Amino acid sequence: MMEFNGMKRAKNVVKSRRIREMIKLNFTWVAERIGIDLHVIDLKKEDDRRWMKALIWPEHKDRRQLFEKAARCLEQTPIRLIEGDGVELLSDLVAQVPSDTVVCIFHTHVANQMSDEAKRGLLEQLREIGRQRDLFHVYNNMWDPKLHLDRMINGRECWQIVAETDGHARWFRWEADGCGCGGNKETKKEFQIK
């Protein structure tokens, strides 16, 4: 175990009571993982895996190693992959999720490829869903590169910027002040992903 920026670190995990307090970590089971894309990439298929590796810049050896670790984790994680327009399919898919399950919509580096009209349509759909059930929306690169956490709990909306992130997921700088809305510059910490 080594120290990094005042934090105890083991392998790729940063351990700290302060971090736990900041994010009020409560684990819940993931009922189902669903991936939606216009063109599904299935890392269980060798051709798709090679294609994804080819997209990693040659000098980014650390990213290639991280990709391999993530791909191995995915081999043991059940996920349903759906080919199609996520914005168009979202409401129907959410309607299939049991009502006692909290919905979490997560995307990175997708919304920056969407038109402003499509982005607004997505946000309006999420608001409508959030009026009916609890919802979390975790994303970056919709309007800016920051990592956002929007919540709709009991019909109440809350928006929060939680981190500044590297475009290639090599690091993040925590900006959130726990589970409340708003940021606190005094709690900023930077972590390397290894």
What can you see in these coordinates?
The chain is of the alpha+beta class and 194 residues long. It has one domain (2-38, 84-192). It is 30% helix and 27% strand. The protein is built from 5 helices and 11 strands, in the order E-E-E-H-E-H-H-E-H-E-H-E-E-E-E-E. It has helices spanning 17-23, 46-54, 61-75, 86-95, 116-132, and strands spanning 2-4, 7-10, 13-15, 34-37, 80-83, 103-107, 135-139, 147-153, 156-165, 171-174, 189-192. A 6-stranded mixed β-sheet has the order 6-7-8-9-10-11. Strands 1-2-3 form a 3-stranded antiparallel β-sheet. Helix 4 runs parallel beside helix 5 (116-132). The chain starts with a strand and ends with a strand. Mean pLDDT is 82; it is low at 1-13 and 182-194.
Provide the residue-averaged pLDDT.
Answer: 82
Total separate domains = 1
Question: What's the number of extended β-strand segments?
Answer: 11
Tell me what portion of residues adopts beta-strand conformation.
25-35%
* SSE pattern: EEEHEHHEHEHEEEEE
- Radius of gyration (CA) equals 18 Å
Question: Which structural class do you get from the secondary structure elements?
Answer: alpha+beta
Enumerate how many helices there are, as a single number: 5
Q: Main sheet: which strands, in order across?
A: 6-7-8-9-10-11
Q: List unreliable stretches of 5+ residues.
A: 1-13, 182-194
Shape: globular
Q: Main beta sheet: strand number and arrangement?
A: 6 strands, mixed
Terminal CA distance reads: 14 Å
Helix content: 25-40%
